[in-house]
Design brief:
Elements (H helix, E strand, L loop, with lengths): L12 H16 L5 E3 L6 H6 L4 E3 L3 H17 L2
Parallel strand pairs: 1-2
Amino acid sequence: SASIGKLGRIDDPEVMELVTAAERYILEGGKWLGRVIAPDANPHSYFERGYNFVSNASDILLLREGALKCVSMMDDK
């Protein structure tokens, strides 16, 4: 979405069309298809569309959660 000037607008019709085309090209090319999804998204729908790998945890999210845990441990003392 950011590459076409629509940062964060994942539901935008143009973004969705490009994602669908990319999925098709990847699957037709015999490559693995993977994606990081929102924590509240249903991973099963992606597997039904042919995805081989789906994660709902990004490196930034995991780093943030770890940092918040460390800070909260410091506050408890």
